[in-house]
Amino acid sequence: MSDLGYDAAHMLGAVVLLMSFALLYQRRLFSLLNVFTMQALALTATAAWQAYSHGEPHLYITALLTLVLKAILIPVALHRIIVKMKIHRTIEPALGIGLTMVAGVSLVTLSILLVLPVTADATALTRENLALSLSVVLLGLLMMISRRNAVSQVVGFMSIENGLILAAVGAAGMPLVVEMSVAFSVMVAFIIFGIFLFHIRERFDTLDMQKIESFRGESD
Amino acid sequence: MSAVAVIVATPLIGAAVLALVPGHRLGARLNIGFSAVTLLASLVLFALEPSSGALFVVDAFNIYLIALTAFVGLTTSVFSAGYIAHEIAVGKLDERKLRFYHAMYQAFMFTMLLALSANNLGVMWVAVEGATLTTVLMVSLYRTAASIEAAWKYFILCGVGIALALFGTILMYMAAQPVMGPGMAAMTWTELMVHVAKISPAILNLAFVFLLIGYGTKVGLAPLHAWLPDAHAEGPTPISAVLSGLLLNVALYAVLRFKMLLAANGQAIAPGPLMIAMGLASLLLAGLMLYRRRDVKRFFAYSSIEHMGIITFAFGMGGPLANFAGLLHMAMHSLTKSAIFYAVGHAVQVTGTQRIERISGLTVSHPALGWGLLAGVVAIAGLPPFGVFMSEFLLVTSTFAREPLLALPLVAGILVAFGALVLRVQQLCFGAPGTVEGSGVPVASVPLQGTLVPLYAHLALVLVAGVWLPGPLVAWFQTVAALLG
């Protein structure tokens, strides 16, 4: 592969990771959605670039699905839910920028330390792509743990899925079935999450997960 | 069309048909009908030679799990028919919800059978993911605050688990791709088993860690078990029965398939210590937690965590004997635990409560139910002459022979859980029967709805397995035990 192809793929993957960092410290739900959209766009570009540079046309479909679902439909739908439930003014506690950087950098270091030694015989692009995507997955997990609001948890969950797609497009010749199903499952997952959000809204008049978690099934 | 295709297609068609059928009585009958066809088709498998194609694989390992899944699916659908008739009568569910419930039940059976018979890592992952979605929807069926919380927790935890399992699957492909070339072959079980010896062990190790944690979440292994008691307690009882009886097994099956790959590779890390640690942690934790449970369904859900811990420990130990015990225990636990949930479902319906201290004297008020529950608990506690005793005995003796130090916590865990079971079953089955929750009506005057046939059918099978195992079954278990390494 040419140097340009390598550099471009590397850069786009890094942008996806950068957006994961940015997701961590967004305190307002709308800005959270905007950053998520940017991440989805970066992922679309990555998938399209891999499709072009490796000559794997089925990755264009992955790119298209990511673009339509994650960069357009899901943010729009979540936007409407937020407005409808009047939680757009919510400022929720998120990690501070400094803490985010420390936690994020240590997770990225961890994934590089984990991935690079075991992939000694793979190509440089595969290795670095894997390290990047593992970092995105771990940052998504961190986000799900550190957030209390249901909408931000959904966004965290979807950023984990972004990391998975990043890994899948980087694996040479990975059969399409899996990518399609990932995209599909994200959609289904989103629908269910949506149903959940509405039910939770009906029942509790709040999306604060801390309050819901106080409803223990068992009263002891 | 091959038998496997029929097995997988029947519940899928069933789900589509049941989504359109109005009326819960017809729905329940059709649900039983589709499950019966699935079971018949799975019995045909035993007459055929093991086969593998691009889509499906049938070998000594999954053939008995497919039959077991179809069987428990059928008995649970019979139990479910009586169960929902009562829920309709007391107004907890309505027709619209039940139509949805029946469609989801068949959809769930479809995902279970697809996960078991798929010859492709990706297809299996999609199936397990689909199983999560369908069960989440069924757990939240009652739409109570507690059931929505349970379903939410289940969804978040298993969603993350499923995501990690997919990452492991992608890693597995990346490991195989340099050896086997790009394309489908590198994601096919049968092809992977042929070429796995040449695959670089380093990525394989990393992949297995993700797969164990990912699918392990669905197995309910500590410390990733938090979703399991809630999901069991808050959903309809037939769902608790299939969650414990089928879903946990299928998730474990996924882990074991990957363990087979590692064993066949030879140079990869031994997955044993990891699995032993997670198994023992689950066993001891769940054993101790059993004492503090006040909700009867939650109580038996913790017992499922305990038994999945024992099974994972057995496969972690490895070797022909321990693997044999693990395979047998998977089948026995599945049959016994679903039988217990049938009994518990009836008991909760006649007493109107899930709180253990409010249920008592079932052997007096409803002898057939009470003694059935007692027999189930005796079986799950690991007492002879039931099949669970056989598998636990095999496991404990083989562990003592090889690693006496590991046998101590194993026995301790089993005994701790045994104590809790004896303590609670006395409360449930003996003493004076009380009154129905919220009214002064004596429990004894409430008639039992539905049939106890599923309960006693399961108990009979567990009893037979404890006394005599059929030759072909033993031969399969031995073949698979050798493959598992």
Description:
The complex is a heterodimer of chains A (220) and B (485). By secondary structure, chain A is mostly helical. Helices cover 80% and strands 0% of the residues of chain A. Chain A has helices at residues 3-24, 29-54, 58-84, 97-118, 124-146, 150-170, 176-204, 209-213. With 485 residues, chain B is mostly helical. Chain B has a domain at 334-485. Chain B is 77% helix and 1% strand. Chain B has helices at residues 3-20, 24-47, 60-89, 95-117, 121-139, 145-180, 189-195, 201-219, 227-234, 237-265, 272-289, 296-317, 319-351, 362-365, 367-380, 387-402, 404-429, 453-467, 471-484; strands at residues 51-52, 57-58. In chain B, strands 1-2 form a two-stranded antiparallel sheet. In chain B, α5 (121-139) runs antiparallel to α6 (145-180) and α13 (319-351) runs antiparallel to α16 (387-402). The longest helix of chain B has 36 residues, at 145-180. Chain B is globular and about 70 Å long. The two termini of chain B are 34 Å apart.
Task: Summarize the helices and strands and which ones pair or pack.
The complex is a heterodimer of chains A (220) and B (485).
Chain A: H1 3-24, H2 29-54, H3 58-84, H4 97-118, H5 124-146, H6 150-170, H7 176-204, H8 209-213
Helix pairs in contact in A: 1-2, 1-5, 1-6, 2-3, 2-6, 3-7, 4-5, 5-6, 6-7
Chain B: H1 3-20, H2 24-47, E1 51-52, E2 57-58, H3 60-89, H4 95-117, H5 121-139, H6 145-180, H7 189-195, H8 201-219, H9 227-234, H10 237-265, H11 272-289, H12 296-317, H13 319-351, H14 362-365, H15 367-380, H16 387-402, H17 404-429, H18 453-467, H19 471-484
Antiparallel strand pairs in B: 1-2
Helix pairs in contact in B: 1-2, 1-4, 2-3, 2-4, 3-4, 3-10, 3-13, 3-18, 4-5, 4-10, 5-6, 5-10, 6-8, 6-9, 8-10, 9-10, 9-12, 10-12, 10-13, 11-12, 11-17, 12-13, 13-15, 13-16, 13-18, 13-19, 15-17, 15-18, 16-17, 16-18
